[in-house]
Records
---
Amino acid sequence: MREYHDEEWGVPLFDDRKLFEFILLDGMQAGLSWRTILHKRENFRKAFDEFDPEKIVRYTPAKVRKLLADPGIIRNRLKVQAAVTNAQAFLSVVEKGGAFHPYIWGFVGGRPIQNKWKTLWQLPCRSRQSDLMSKSLREIGFRFVGSTICYAFMQAAGMVNDHTVDCFRHSEIAKPAGRMT
């Protein structure tokens, strides 16, 4: 957990494959702790073909059954099937726009929102942007993308800097605050 916080969480991310991984994992987390998902991340990576949407979109019912029998991942039928559906929706966005990151980063104007929370209790579980993202993602076919899941995704992908101001990562991440490329 510490390594994830110190090196990955909240860092602005523009790599489409990694963004797809985060959406898939955040959807799997629904109703569970992030710790559970993080501990199973490597298992997910192997089971879901390195989060390759081109491969996931071609999963057969036999492959889905194999995933549902894999104790190394979350064996929830709806979530596993959502991964396939989300791969289809993700590839649709890429086909229409050439890439996923311009679409998803559009919800924050292409630049991370720099919050200045003093305590963890101030962190919201959703925002206007996550509400809009959730609605848009669902309209194009994504599943397990409610506003709270979208906000967690935004935090993980660095679309919002929700490190508290006393955390060493807050200023480190705020420095580049680069724009989407």
Note: Residues 77-97 form the longest helix (21 residues).
---
Amino acid sequence: MKEILEKRPRSLVKKASHIKALIFDVDGVLTDGKIIYDDSGRETKSFNVKDGLIIAHLRKAGIIVGVISGRESEAVSRRASELRLDFCHQGIVDKLSVFTKLIEHYNLKRKEVAYIGDDINDLAILRQVGIGVCPSDAPLYVKSEVEFVSTVAGGQGVVRDFADFLLAASGYLSKMLKSI
């Protein structure tokens, strides 16, 4: 765990230890951003299993986990259900208003929330949260607005990369690994 934490500033580790919710976008975060249509017009997406595995541990650690996505997709609904996310809001044009309602609903302070986004429609939330996160392949203007740029690209385990850091900062990761 030490090696995970040493890569980041101490101030960020301290902030991470107070995070109570992790919210993320889907396309470009959970996926590589590609949208594939089969011959019948059905949309398919590819998700990284490592993100799914760590989400279960985030939830066991008491962290609220959910999605705010600008697009609507049956594949996302299915994946959110499989992962037992606390919420999955899709087809959202004004992500900030949904974010505001969610923090009120869960009685959270903005500084207790981390958000992972990768594009223009995520900036309003990234500017409001305790820790803003983006994948390594996000545009420079998104990277300049966040405190945690993942070492991996969208769809390659971005949630896992940040979640390992988050769980290490809270001390949960070392406890979990010792119990295995």
Note: The beta strands are 21-24, 36-37, 43-44, 64-68, 87-89, 113-116, 131-134, 148-149.
